[in-house]
Amino acid sequence: MKRKAPSLQKSLPRYYFLVIFVTFTAMLTAFYIYYTKNLRASEYLNLQNVCDSACSNMEQEIEKMSTVSLNTIYSKDILPGIRGIHVDQLGTQQTYTQVQAIYNSISAMIGPQQTVAQINLYHKNGFSVGTGFYTYNKKINLEEKSWYSDVLAENGYKIMSTPQPISHFIPTAAIPYEPYYISLTRLYFDDVHQMEGAVEVLQKCDTFFSFIDRLTAANPSLSLLIMDRNGELIYPVDERGEEMAHLTAVLAEKQDIPAGRTVHVRDENGSKNALHRQTVKTVGWQIYVFEPDSVITRSLAAPTFLFLAVLVAGLLLTMAVCFSISRRILQPVGELTETFETLVLDDVFSHTIDTVSLPQSHYEEIQTLITSFRDMYNKMNASTMEMLKSQENEIRAKEIATQSMMKPHFLYNNLANISVMAEENMNQEIITLTENLCDYLRYTSTGSEIRVPVSDEFLYTQKYLACMNVRYRGRLTCDFTLDERMGEIQIPKLSLQPIIENSLKYAFMKKPPWHITVRGYLDAAAGKWLIRITDNGVGFTGEELRKLTHTLESIRDSKDITRLKIGGMGLQNVYLRLLLQYGPSAILTVENDPEGGACITMGGSIANVRNS
């Protein structure tokens, strides 16, 4: 049973609803993508700024401690004073005075601003002295220090420790709580550059990382972690740092995280994170700053819900308006439908279409529809006439091609040549000429094939030239080269011979010998087949080239079949037939050969080859 068509009153609201729904959905999607992109860019910039600020601050803090250690080494009072102390005399009055002088010098080095928390000095003779938050002097074994082998390997360059409780640095210090400190240690040398001892500068972690603490507090959604070159945790010092170190280790195993660029990684739970890394070059520390991607998506929730609410309200309002409009439009549309039903198809081809009585309406859209209906009938009439004209032109083109294939003057010339050759008893030459002439005439007179393989066109063009060469008595030489891969490509029949004929007619206005080269090849990169015809004639003048180029361009733009003229298949005819077969990919260029003479290139797209 045939399904009943839906009414306009029901269909119109559906169509409006679909259009509004698609439009609003596209707007929501575009808004979401744009907002997300900008938000991510802002967050990534914030990640980079936080990481860069942390890296810069760490370099400053390390440089501050390094400067203090160097000033201690180059002090005129501290190291000379240590060299004058004998370990065996510790506790004596003389040693006490010397140690007090060293204390004073170290305290002056620390300064009233408390640049660092503690300075410890170690001599290879076993003497150690330090002051700051804790003052001591004692005998030690320098090689038993945990940092000794590392600092010795650096040959005097500074090394940084991981945060450790004060008991790690000064076991004898009696402090009721265990604050964390970080140290910078380097060797110092005597006058002959022999290792003499080490200087250790301590700084309290609360002071050293104070800027980092403020930075992370100001960005609660970000997590910041610092690790040394050995992968040991530097910051944060609390237990949360161990969890972050584990997370970063997992992230680092998944991909090589580049420095100075924000990347996306997923943790072991599959959560997406934005991660940025920088390197503190002076000590090789790695600073990681990352933010969960969920922080960004959560910020999109409020505007997305708001937009969805607007979308729903807009759709409901649209539905109500559409129902109202459809009821008002239904009556004039019904009248218009009745008028359409009275019309028949034969009216399309009559001249009475303007006299058909069409309904009137005060709606501009209905009036436009009526006018469009009348214009449609007129255009259908014009299109039908144009289609008939095109068919007529196609038949005419085939007739022109068939008529142009036969060249009476070509036959007359060859018959005259045969007559002369018969008088001179050139029997073998007559046989060869007759065979070539018969083959060529059979090829040109066969009208069933509009398109032929390139190999056939090459073969019969050579036979044509063989016939013509009898007339020129060896003054004309020809060189044909064809890529065997393009032998079966279809081209318009007799598209090569007219170009050769033009060369014989116009190009050789100079003394022989004359030479024509025909080369067929494939341009795989461009996807084109090409046939290049060159001669050693006089070539084209600038004015001729300009006119020919303009004519070919006008043919490409118009594809005017009326340009096919009876009595010739010249460049215009060849190009037009190439356009009819290959469309926009057809090629026909005219130029002068750099070595002299004319050069014509014809071709088309391999992919757009149309079978006849």
Q: How is this structure best described in words?
A:
- With 612 residues, the chain is of the alpha+beta class.
- 51% of the residues lie in helices and 19% in strands.
- Strands 1, 2, 3, 4, 5, 6 and 7 form a 7-stranded antiparallel β-sheet that branches. Strands 9-8-12-11-10 form a 5-stranded antiparallel β-sheet. Strands 14-16-17-19-18 form a 5-stranded mixed β-sheet.
- The protein starts with 7 loop residues before the first helix and ends in a 7-residue tail after the last strand.
- The mean pLDDT is 79.
Key terms:
alpha+beta, seven-stranded antiparallel β-sheet, five-stranded antiparallel β-sheet, 17 helices
Distance between the termini: 44 Å
The percentage helix is 40-55%
Summarize the main sheet. 7 strands, antiparallel
Q: Report low-confidence residues grouped into runs of 5 or more.
A: none
> How much β-strand is present in the residues?
15-25%
| Mean model confidence by pLDDT | 79
Structural shape: elongated
What is the count of helical runs?
Answer: 17
Structural class of the secondary structure composition? alpha+beta
Number of E-type strands:
19
- Any idea what the radius of gyration is? 48 Å
Explain briefly what this protein structure is.
With 612 residues, the chain is of the alpha+beta class. The chain is built from 17 helices and 19 strands.
Please describe the topology of this protein.
Blueprint: H1 8-73, H2 78-83, H3 93-110, E1 118-123, E2 127-132, E3 136-139, H4 148-153, E4 159-160, E5 164-165, H5 166-169, E6 180-189, E7 195-204, H6 205-208, H7 210-218, E8 223-227, E9 233-235, H8 239-254, E10 263-266, E11 272-280, E12 285-292, H9 293-299, H10 301-342, H11 364-405, H12 408-423, H13 427-445, E13 451-453, H14 454-472, E14 476-482, E15 490-492, H15 497-507, E16 514-523, E17 528-535, H16 542-558, H17 571-582, E18 587-592, E19 598-605
Parallel strand pairs: 14-16
Antiparallel strand pairs: 1-2, 1-7, 2-3, 4-6, 5-6, 6-7, 8-9, 8-12, 10-11, 11-12, 13-15, 16-17, 17-19, 18-19
Helix pairs in contact: 1-10, 12-13, 13-14, 16-17
